[in-house]
UniProtKB/TrEMBL annotation:
Region forming the signal peptide: none
NCBIfam families: PRK00431.1-6
Stored InterPro entries: Macro_dom, Macro_dom-like
UniProt keyword terms in alphabetical order: Hydrolase
Top-level enzyme category: hydrolase
Domain of life: Bacteria
Identification of the protein by name: O-acetyl-ADP-ribose deacetylase
Transmembrane segments: none
């Protein structure tokens, strides 16, 4: 039975077995969560991302997929990097966003992670409306069989927190 919890705060300050990064396909860092995780996780995280680019993911990590690296200096054992879809008003990419959560849980199960912290994937630079993103996130987690015991959504601001609270209420 997986418990869903909500926290308002900075995901890089969370203690969890795995912290999920809202990455881009390059895996080489960026702004938002990505920037914060690399800043606080330190060079070991980027070093492993580079190794992934030099091996399994030569062309980058496709949207909707997930891959784990060390968490470096973060208070976690792993970072699970996943690439959210950019929001499109004309093309329904909901399944790609749901896939980020499903695939991250699959990777967490492979690792044996029992607690996983997620940001609100795609709701920043990728402009996904947070209410809809929260609905997709909660639905995806609730419909994915996993051994993960706690899924913690870590929301950076009040608006995102309220949106997720409405979906998990
Ligand atoms: N902790 C928790 N949540 C955060 C943090 C943080 N430290 N920083 C930002 N957020 C929130 C944002 O407010 C937003 O709600 O995470 C959500 C996702 O925003 P982004 O980090 O912009 O991620 P995303 O929209 O998926 O865009 C990914 O942005 O940073 C680049 O390299 C990244 O190209 C990729 C793109």
């Amino acid at each position: 039975m997986t418990t869903l919890t909500l926290v308002q705060g900075d995901i890089t300050r969370q203690h969890a077995d795995a912290i999920v990064n809202a990455a881009n396909s390059s895996l080489l860092g960026g702004g938002g969560v990505d920037g914060a995780i690399h800043r606080r996780g330190g060079p070991a995280v980027l070093a492993e991302c580079r190794a992934l680019r030099a091996s399994r993911y030569g062309k980058g990590l496709p949207t909707g997929r997930a891959v784990a690296t060390t968490a470096g200096e973060l208070d976690a054992r792993w970072v699970i990097h996943t690439v959210g879809p950019v929001y499109s008003p004309t093309e329904d990419r909901s399944d790609l966003l749901a896939s980020c959560y499903r695939e991250s849980l699959r990777v967490a199960d492979e690792l044996g992670a029992r607690t996983v912290a997620f940001p609100a994937i795609s709701t920043g630079v990728y402009r996904w409306p947070v209410e809809d993103a929260a609905r997709i996130a909660v639905e995806a987690v609730r419909s994915t069989p996993t051994a993960v015991e706690e899924v913690r959504f870590v929301l950076f601001d009040e608006r995102a927190y309220e949106a997720f609270a409405r979906q998990t209420g």
